[in-house]
TrEMBL record:
<dbReference type="Pfam" id="PF00441">
    <property type="entry name" value="Acyl-CoA_dh_1"/>
</dbReference>
<comment type="similarity">
    <text>Belongs to the acyl-CoA dehydrogenase family.</text>
</comment>
<keyword id="KW-0274">FAD</keyword>
<dbReference type="Pfam" id="PF02771">
    <property type="entry name" value="Acyl-CoA_dh_N"/>
</dbReference>
<feature type="domain" description="Acyl-CoA dehydrogenase/oxidase C-terminal">
    <location>
        <begin position="257"/>
        <end position="328"/>
    </location>
</feature>
<keyword id="KW-0560">Oxidoreductase</keyword>
<dbReference type="InterPro" id="IPR036250">
    <property type="entry name" value="AcylCo_DH-like_C"/>
</dbReference>
<keyword id="KW-0285">Flavoprotein</keyword>
<feature type="region of interest" description="Disordered">
    <location>
        <begin position="326"/>
        <end position="352"/>
    </location>
</feature>
<dbReference type="GO" id="GO:0016491">
    <property type="term" value="F:oxidoreductase activity"/>
</dbReference>
<dbReference type="InterPro" id="IPR009075">
    <property type="entry name" value="AcylCo_DH/oxidase_C"/>
</dbReference>
<dbReference type="InterPro" id="IPR037069">
    <property type="entry name" value="AcylCoA_DH/ox_N_sf"/>
</dbReference>
<protein>
    <submittedName>
        <fullName>Acyl-CoA dehydrogenase family protein</fullName>
        <ecNumber>1.-.-.-</ecNumber>
    </submittedName>
</protein>
<dbReference type="InterPro" id="IPR013786">
    <property type="entry name" value="AcylCoA_DH/ox_N"/>
</dbReference>
<feature type="domain" description="Acyl-CoA dehydrogenase/oxidase C-terminal">
    <location>
        <begin position="357"/>
        <end position="432"/>
    </location>
</feature>
<dbReference type="InterPro" id="IPR046373">
    <property type="entry name" value="Acyl-CoA_Oxase/DH_mid-dom_sf"/>
</dbReference>
<feature type="domain" description="Acyl-CoA dehydrogenase/oxidase N-terminal">
    <location>
        <begin position="6"/>
        <end position="119"/>
    </location>
</feature>
């Protein structure tokens, strides 16, 4: 592993930081979250045009930059520093990879260029489960969480005319769901016996039966919405035999690396604000930063931030190293053993199909290991952000909890992220399970969450 960043990666970080310093101050953040979209749409277009941020990990043949999880993590670290309200995580981190990995050639051609250009934003609606569980970061993620029947969630049934599907149900806490131009909805289909989870593409602005309500959230900089579907028309993403839970689990490593880097950026900036404050706050005739106890507390926080940053970078590298070359394939591997015209499987086709399955199994195993690494990194980043912001509030004194001060924004981000993407102990427990750390230990298995 080469720990040094390339010149291109350094340029991405440097250019993005300069732009955000000019366009995304605390007052701008407060104004952006109160808009209908929940973010600065003009800034989002500028980030798309100048930096290609929405298409950072989209392939070049679809108008993207063609980078990977490491570049996305670096971008998220910079957006986390300023608590940028944007659809970056939902669009570039969740929707775009799923469309690239599962979508048909037509769906990729239609959606990915518009996502890469910043014209189209996306959101992933996962009923009845937190995002980490669906991504396999806190549990196996078998897909039952999509609901169906009397269990709630979202149900899907074929439309009467044989074209498309109808979705019925609801999903809460959908990141950026109130403003997304395209929704990927996980829904249960097939009834009780043969039920399975599939992903559906839904355009809220052009179909009926969709109600989107922005929720009041603890962290205003990360908007959430409730999606209600009443026989809303949708198209199946990819094919009916796609393994959606497995696809989401493969996405877990890169998504967790993005979240970890974002938390590290927020923690680093909160620590900077605290250091600036203790240098100027005078008590007993001297700056409080000169007291030994305060120095020790800040030194411990600095070490924690650096350790969390290293873990986030490694998680991003591991996620990128495990990414297979077929991320934007056309799904034709399933038919590798089909004879022309007759459907008979030749001996050569069987060998090819077996080779494809072996490669897919190896890739899945690598993705699972990357998800474990990323889960540990995310747990460390969430705990670091919580510790840094708690100390920041204490060292700022009474002003640290006032509505006008910036520190309270970072404190809310820490509390909200722990609820949305944690808890850290379950992230670590899942990583230990994936690594086989407690294999053969009945005492640990008996109390495992």
């Amino acid at each position: 592993m080469d720990a040094a960043f390339t010149e291109e990666q350094g340029e991405i970080r440097r250019t993005l930081r300069e732009l955000l310093l000019k366009r995304c101050g605390p007052d701008g953040v407060r104004a952006a979250v109160r808009t209908r979209a929940g973010y600065d749409e003009a800034l989002w277009r500028q980030l798309a045009e100048q930096l290609g941020l929405p298409g950072l990990a989209v392939g070049r043949r679809h108008g993207g930059v063609g980078c990977g999880p490491t570049e996305l993590a670096l971008a998220c670290e910079e957006t986390g520093r300023v608590l940028l309200p944007s659809p970056l995580l939902a669009t570039a981190g969740l929707v775009a990879p799923l469309v690239a990995g599962l979508g048909t050639r037509t769906q990729r051609t239609e959606l990915l260029p518009r996502i890469a250009s910043g014209e189209l934003t996306g959101a992933l609606a996962l009923p009845r489960t937190p995002l980490p569980a669906a991504l396999g970061l806190t549990g196996p993620g078998d897909g039952d969480w999509a609901g169906g029947g009397r269990a709630g969630g979202v149900q899907a049934r074929p439309a009467g005319d044989g074209r498309g599907w109808l979705l019925y149900g609801d999903a809460a806490q959908v990141l950026d769901g109130h403003s997304a131009g395209v929704l990927l909805v996980a829904a249960r289909t097939g009834g009780y016996v043969r039920g399975r989870t599939l992903l559906f593409v839904l355009r809220p602005e052009v179909v009926r039966g969709v109600r989107r309500t922005r929720l009041t959230a603890l962290d205003e900089t990360r908007p959430q919405a409730r999606i209600e579907l009443r026989d809303a028309e949708a198209d199946l993403l990819g094919r009916a035999d796609d393994e959606v839970p497995a696809a989401l689990a493969r996405l877990g490593g890169s998504a967790a690396a993005m979240l970890a880097a974002e938390a590290v950026g927020a923690a680093d900036r909160a620590l900077e604000l605290t250091v600036e404050h203790v240098r100027t706050r005078v008590q007993f005739g001297r700056p409080i930063g000169s007291f030994q106890a305060v120095k020790h507390r800040l030194a411990d926080l600095y070490v924690s931030v650096q350790a969390a940053r290293s873990a986030a970078y490694y998680a991003a590298w591991a996620a990128g190293a495990g990414a297979g070359p077929s991320a934007e394939g056309d799904g034709s591997a399933a038919g590798a053993g089909t004879g022309a015209g007759t459907g008979a499987r030749t001996e050569e086709g069987v060998r090819k199909a077996e080779g494809v399955r072996a490669a897919e199994d190896a890739e899945t195993a690598e993705d699972v290991r990357a998800a474990g690494d990323a889960g540990v990194a995310l747990a460390q980043a969430l705990e670091t952000l919580r510790a840094v912001t708690a100390e920041a509030v204490q060292l700022h004194g009474g002003i640290g909890v006032t509505w006008e001060h910036d520190v309270q924004l970072y404190f809310k981000r820490a509390a909200s992220d722990a609820l949305l993407f944690g808890p850290p102990e379950r992230l670590r427990a899942r990583a230990a399970e994936l690594s086989g750390l407690f294999a053969g230990c009945p005492e640990r298995e008996a109390v495992a969450p």
